[in-house]
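Protein modeling request. Please complete all fields; requests missing the sequence field cannot be processed.
Requester role: graduate student
Desired output: 3D structure, token encoding
Chains: 1
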Amino acid sequence: PLVESVFPPSRATSARVVYFDDLGLIAVTDTPRTVMIVERAIEQVRDQMLQVQFFEVPLRNISAPAARDRAIELLGGAPSGGTQPNQQNQFPQFQNPAAPGQPQTGNRTSGLITNIEARLMVNAQGNALIFSGRPEELELVRQVIERIDVASRLESRSYDAGQYAEQIANLARGQGLGEVVVIDQESQNQNQFGGFVFPGQQQQSQAPDTLARGSRMIVDVRRGKIIYFGTPEQHAILARLIEDIGLESEAVTIRAYALQNADAEETADLLRQLILGQAAGGEGGSLLPTGGGQQQQPFNPFLGFQQQGGPDQGVSLFGDEYTQIVADIANNQILVRAPANLQPQYERLIGDLDMRRQQVYIRAHIVAVSNTEASRLAFETQVINAAGDPIIQTNFGLNRADGTTDISDPRQPLANLTGLTTAVIQSKYVPIIMHATATDTDSRIVSSPQLLVNDNFEASIQAIDQQPTTSTSQTTGAPSVTAFNGYEDAGTTLTVTPSISSNGWIRMEYEITLSNFTGVSTADGVPPPKQDRTVTAEAVTIPSDATIVVGGIVVEDTRNTVVKIPIIGDIPLIGHLFRDTNQNDTSAVLYVFITPYIMSDPSFQDMRLLTRGPQSEVEFPDGVPQIQPRMIDIISPAPAPRLEP
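Delivered output (645 residues):
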């Protein structure tokens, strides 16, 4: 284009110019005067090209692409939006002319420096610019860069604006506070690698041109935040705008609520069921919102952040991706992450759940009374004729006869018979053994378990007596082996769950078991007989401070056993000599009495008074030092002297 511009307009079409790129020559055919003018023009261009150098302009405060665009704009060029110029032709002002009939190519611009777009480049090895030109042009470029490369006087601050962040930013833009850049959820999901951009995403991740100049607002729609770059005066205007709208309270905050009475884990589970719709024991401990997939919307009667309506309607609790409820078990507190305007409602709800439970002191009396009357009258007779031969003999287990004893042998009574035992053993005709005994057993067992339990909580107390048992194994050809086989338990067990009603009644679920060993052991490793008695109720309502019988068992057992010789044993009077009579009359009574006491004194004085009885009964010191009275002398001041006349 330079060579063609030398020719006059009337000669431009007739002039012949041939470019030999391989040889670096230009052939011009025209008049001598025109050829001389072309030659001088080429010499001037050649001299200027010899003065062209590459200069590096370092930057300290702004990025090189942004500085390049601003410098090109100030020097009269057209900014390229941060893209590199075509490296194949760094001097388009010296391009070859186009072929005849073809439009000229290039990017010539009129300004302070010609073709600054192609001569000012970004140094990829650092934050600097590379300028191609003469030293006098470099001075102008440096002056422009010095004006550009200054620290920004705009302050960056973050504002919590809730779900209306984008609307507030647009309203602020209308008031002249700067441009708005919106970061939506879709753009965040496309880059989940901490902001690293892959080569294929570089073009899409370029920030808009508004980020490089003036006040601007970056809106994070997902988090409800506005990041504003502006002067202190502009920040004051935006802060007043958000305050006037009253949406800053929707910022997500984390608060800890310490519990005084309730259990943190149980309370957190209850809140998650109520607010988030999660099942008991569900996962809710993560402080980060769950990402990926679709989250099922839980059922909740509340409708959103705010409900428009009358004065009684306002902010309501609800569960969303920002709401998290975590139990801090170590410190017995609950951590709640939710919008700030919802935290007061969480505080009131947790305060209602963290109320002090009333306690119930339960005193149970299990009384078991039994009476057993047993009697036995038995005769054994051996009738012998005059020749000394036996005629009749009875055996009810009173003598020592065994398989080797002859019927004519005299009978010897057993030595271990209790009660009255008499025998006629010398008579040759009517030897008689008589055994008479009567047993009267009265027993009374009183068990009084006592325990203190919170309202609607289960408590249990038990006192167990254990008897050892053994097992014997026999192997062929080896002696028997006896080993320990555990314990057999007997005792008292009380399990109770009280529930206090608003009018002072107590609804109680209980199970009472009384078991004891009766008699004595008959052999080593064999415990005495055991008797079990259990009273269970799913629900019973009783008043406080009153002893109520809640269960009882009355058992009467009458047995009359007669072992006799048929027909002869039925003869009056004489028949007693031929029979064994056993009579057993047993009666047993079991009653369960329960006395509940509601402990509701906030200063626990009722518990202290209740403790004094058992403490005094077992002579257990209370640990409170006794305060002994001490007399303190009072010194009266001496009367003031009076003046006598």
